[in-house]
Amino acid sequence: MNVSYQWLSEYLDLTGITPEGLADKMSRTGIEVEDVFVPETGLKKIVVGHAIKVEDHPDSDHLHVCQVDIGEEELSQIVCGAPNIATGQKIIVALPGSRITGNTKIKKSKMRGQASNGMVCSLSELGFSEKVVPKKYADGIYVLPDEAIPGEPVFSYLAMDDAILDLSITPNRADALSMRGVAHEVGAIYDRKPIFEDVLLTEMENEKIADYIAVAVEDKKDTPFYSMRIIKDVKIAESPMWLQTKLMNAGIRPLNNVVDITNYILLEYGQPLHAFDYDRLASKDILVRRAAEGEKLDTLDGETRQLTNKMIVITTGEKPVALAGIMGGLGTEIQEDTVTIALESALFEPVAIRKTAKELNLRSESSSRYEKGINHATILSASAHAAALIADLAGGTVVSGAAVVSTIEVEDVLVSITLEKLNRSLGTKIKTDEVLSIFNRLGFGVTEDSGLFNVSIPPRRWDISIEADLLEEVARIYGYDNLPSTLPIIESTPGKLDDKQRIVRHTRHYLEGAGLSQAISYVLTTTEKARQFVMRESDATTLDFPMSEDRSTLRMNLISGLLDNVHYNTARKNTDVALYEIGRVFYKNKDGLLPIEEEHLAGVLTGSLVENSWQEKAGKVDFFNLKGIVEGLFETYGLTEPLTVVADKDREGMHPGRTAAVYLGEQSIGFIGQIHPLVAKEYDIKETYVFELNMHPIIEGEKHPTIYAGIPKYPGMTRDIALLVDEGITNQQLIELIHEKGGKYLRQVRLFDLYQGDKINEGKKSLAYTLSYLNPKETLVEEEVTKAFEKVVQALVEQFDAVIR
Fold first, then answer.
1. Running DSSP on this structure, what letter comes out for residue 481?
2. What are the DSSP calls for 390-413, one per residue?
3. What are the tens digits of pLDDT across the range 416-467?
4. How far, in Å, CA of 28 to CA of 114, rounded?
5. What residues have CB less than 8 Å from 73, skipping those under 6 apart?
6. What percent of the chain is modeled with pLDDT above 90?
7. How far apart are CA 527 and CA 779, in angstroms?
């Protein structure tokens, strides 16, 4: 809301208070002031001119040559193209050397051969927004009142020397959406009491409101208060200068004296009013009701509105003539020939107003106030003030009385609080007299008895109803800057990661160290992709109203998202891709509303893990690259359950000869392998290897304690062994047997060679291992290692029919 400093000074003494100081003080006490601006800033040498003579330009069909009195001995000639300029007008003149809006400099010039010593200005050329320029002068220059003195600066006439405070009003402080509300607020801040002049309304005693109009309300919950006054014999004309400038500085376009008065009261009281042309109502009976489905109304903005039964309308019994609290109808608009006014002042249900404004995309100054709340105590007095102003400025006479339907009772709200509660909550040592002073500055009635304050809250502060509200009022008037700064006294709890966070963080570090980059894929995907690579049977969880089919279903795997990322990269010539993702998958919960969520870990490799260099050559990734990364990761977890990898030929979407199931102990936790070539073709990618694991067994699994030991003092020994076995025997089977028979000093078994080819029998393969032995307590004896090694050799021959090479 824009608040005029000069208008505010009409209500209370602002001596010694600058606009900037006021803005700072208000911001510190709860109502933020976003900006303080003076409209005349940046403008200079713009004065009042008197058009003594206006003639058509001899060489133009739209220009005029004007002789203008600018307060100097000789008249100044100015060429003007405004269609509404005429002899005798008081106009706005920018002198040569002046600056208008946009920092444009005005110079002496010639226009079609005629000298022009300056410029006749419109309001927009002085920086006024087009939406606030009076309708009468929207397409031309602005005409000043007759009392304007030629040669004087124009700024005071247009109130451009006023300071405007741009207030950011929160919904809980809607009382400040009025000049009177702001005056009360400023008065409380500076301990200066605002004074509002009494309004004298003179009514026609010989004519009663009942002879002109009757009002009725269908649902009093929708309309708790509704009233109308009648003003006769009005003359529609331009508003006086003081009224126009107040509206323009507040951001409202002046239209005519009657409509401008309703907007003026809206700004002063925060009470929306609406003026109907009584004769165009064509009815003495006004009914406020909900609209019927399919009803239509042409509103003042020229649009035809389709109404619903959720909207409140003002009707003449059957025909809607206004949207309650939002905008009037075009058919009853105040026009130049209007002579009788029906003036509405009401209270409407806030939620209905907000929903209507939102549905029609039609928010107005009135609707914003009804949505946030208005002062119930001034509904009728605001109407009386408006009627008095219409009688004064439009020459009307007010019919005696008002037609009223009301179910509200206006009374003060009593709220209590103790001094002990105030000081304990605020951390202060405020005394009783100071608290009483604060409540008196706020304009609240208050009594005190043994430290208990009984505070009477007037209707203008409908935001205060509980003890906490009083606390806030005392705190902000006392001054937030004056409240002591204290730290809360609480037991300190050292922060640490839980098991899940620790393992997830460790997993990220390890995989990134192995050359993989983290990816984050969309949780929503297509139904087909959601069902790929699933690790358990489940129906898909779909959205009721998806934004697109590509984002319609919650994923049940991470791999499909990573494959999309691989496609995105390879399509852009990035053929070496190594990604991982840690995220949730979602399974349908047949027994509940929400899906079952599982934390998964997935990875994808394609292309090469290394680049060609003088040290090494790039080679395509294979199953064993990915398997080595996964096994290395599990070694760092320190799980007590062993990790095993078992061939899996039947997993859908995976290569039947290059896929394995991953087990932790006896529990299946995922799989690893190559994407089936047909699936790779669907994703438009080349040979790609993936893995996906359920993280829950890893997080919850039992782990070996971490024990730190020194570097061994004694040397170890190694033995190499090469075996010829059936190709169906796996490396894991051999390693498990070697560990089982290797003795207590066997520390590591490493496969360093694998051969299958022409030089060995068909159906056979050759594997070579290095066995590492170490006794941390003493030097190993050759006989101990040889004896343990021979047991391994014997077991391999007996169980797998291995040929030792």
1. G
2. HHHHS--EEEES-EEEE-----PE
3. 999 999 999 999 999 999 999 999 999 999 999 999 999 999 999 999 999 9
4. 57
5. none
6. 83
7. 63
Give the number of other CB atoms < 10 A from CB of residue 269: 27
Reported as a single tens digit per residue, the pLDDT across 653-683 is: 999 999 999 999 999 999 999 999 999 999 9
Secondary structure (DSSP) of 141-186 = PPPBPTTPPTTSBSTTTTTTTS-EEEEE--GGGGGGSSHHHHHHHH
Instruction: Return d(Cα 144, Cα 536) in angstroms, integer.
Output: 82
Radius of gyration of the chain (CA): 43
Q: How many CB atoms lie within 10 A of CB 112?
A: 12
Is the separation of the CB atoms in 277 and 340 below 8 Å?
yes
Mean of pLDDT values over 153-163: 94
pLDDT of residue 138: 86
| Helix orientation angle between 241-249 and 257-269, rounded to the nearest 10 degrees | 50
Asked if 167 and 32 touch (Cβ cutoff 8 Å), the reply is: yes
- CB count, 10 Å around CB of 190? 17
* For range 90-109, the mean pLDDT: 91
Residues paired with 93 in a beta bridge:
47, 120
- Which pair of structure tokens corresponds to residue 154? 């124009």
Element (H, E) at 629: helix 623-637
How far CA 44 is from CA of 96, 107, 152, in Å, comes to 10, 13, 12
Reduced DSSP (H G I as helix, E B as strand, rest coil) percent helix, strand, coil of the chain, to 5: 30, 30, 40
The reported pLDDT for the residue numbered 75 is 94
Q: Running DSSP on this structure, what letter comes out for residue 211?
A: G
> Which token pair is 385?
């003030």
CA 199 to chain centre: 44
> Is 341:276 a contact under the CB 8 Å cutoff?
yes
Coil, strand or helix at 123? coil
Please state the separation of Cα 63 from the chain's center in Å: 50
The answer to whether the CB of 690 falls within 8 A of the CB of 559 is yes
Name which of 177, 141, 162 is nearest 51 in CA terms: 141
SS3 495: coil
Tokens of 345: 């002042």
DSSP 15: T
Place of tokens 């042309």: 277
